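Support request, please re-run this one:
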Amino acid sequence: MKSYWDNRYSQQGHKTVGNCALSVEDFELKTEEVRKKVFEFFVKYFVQKKVLDYGCGWGRLSVVLSLIASEVHGVDIAQWAIDEARKTLTHGHFNLFDGCNIPYPDSQFGGILTWTVLQHVRSWDIEKVCKEIDRVMEANGVLIFYENCSIWIPNKSHIWFRSADAYKALFPNFSVEREEIVPNADDTEEDHVLMVMRKKG
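Re-run finished. Output below.
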């Protein structure tokens, strides 16, 4: 998957993390729209927490987290993305990783965000990835994820579609606080699930 993302970033730059069919101007407008919406949401869960932006890309949402969290850390599989994230949020902490093993000790974070990232984790790696997220989350920490759940669509070369229930099953040590299906996300006919889960104490 690393070569896939390296190639995609080299071709699309910042638009890699959104709807790449949009013009640059429309993409920037959409980015600001998303940032405003998620700020109102994140502020309910991440205030003054040490937060990990898992699959941070170029820091599009790390910026929002920085307005709320006490510390923002990010990991991504692509060196270009990490370099851009460090420019986007100069006081953030961004690290390259292998896509599975999170380079932090146990129980480091009070919050973890993964925004359209888990859907790109291969079926044979997803359990390991979710166990790593569990490992670095402290007790009572909050996990927020937003992922494609259009299970009626065949898997693509870079997307593995999973239902909301499948995602919940991957995090047995967490309880669900909020679950919402977002239809026609990103101006497509695909659905996403927005989930808030809290690690059991």
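Residues 5 and 119 are 14 Å apart (CA to CA). The domain at 2-9+23-199 is CATH 3.40.50.150 (Rossmann fold).
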